[in-house]
Amino acid sequence: MPDSRVARRRRYLVCEPRHFAVRYAINPWMHPDRPVDVLLAQRQWRTLVDTYRDHGHTVETVKPEPGLPDMVFAANAAVVVEGRVFGSLFLAPERRPETVAYEAWFKAGGYEVHHPESVCEGEGDLVPAGRWILAGTGFRTTREAHREVQEFFGVPVIGLTLVDPYFYHLDTALFVLDEENVAYYPEAFSPGSREVLARLYPDAVIATREDAMAFGLNSVSDGRHVFISPGAAALAAQLADRGYVPVPVDLSEFHKAGGGIKCCTQEIRS
Ligand code: ARG
């Protein structure tokens, strides 16, 4: 099994954490009274970008805007499949202006951005997974948005209900390993959604609450390398047993805002 996993080169969009801060609380991780070390955050983020590039991936950046402390979480800005861009409509009014900055980036690159009618937070809740799109709901993205996503892409959308406020976005509770498989934390999902996941992915990698609380499910996989929080040691060991190569990258400062590696990374799929 080891060495059978094949990496595919990816194109990632990221946003430098120049204005990163925790100024409001829109998830249970955020405590505006707890200080964030912005210099450390910048170093951690830089390491993530360097690590992607060292592994052969293309990394592009969108210009950070002052006054938008969560803009660093590029995954939330859109979901891009086959070069088509489904934009976001944030639930929190504090985050809504981010869409303007990201739209400018997409427009400059020749992309047209579809504006959803209902709350929808990009790859935070919409996770393209081979032949379908897994879609989270319960805290942010709505069922109406799921329908809109399916209509827009013409790809089956599989709705999954999140039930634990610590795992408010689908990408905090599940990540895609490759076209065939995923890793997830079952207790983050409603009983019915757990059953759906068990049917779709009988061989899934099952994470513990400890892995999930360490942002281990907020990982990025290129099919072989899994860029993963070093706190999720048990999950990393399971991935290594399955022939994946865990690449630890520590984004601890971003955990204070409720984000990790995947939150900081949007994949541009052409
Ligand atoms: N503070 C941000 C929020 O609550 C964090 C977003 C994390 N992004 C993600 N893809 N899960 O909206």
TrEMBL record:
E.C. number: 3.5.3.18
Pfam families listed in its UniProt record: DDAH_eukar
Gene Ontology molecular functions: dimethylargininase activity
SUPFAM superfamilies named in the record: Pentein
Coiled coil regions in record: none
Superkingdom of source: Bacteria
The entry's keywords: Hydrolase
Similarity annotation: Belongs to the DDAH family.
Name of the protein: Dimethylargininase
Organism, scientific name: Streptomyces fimbriatus
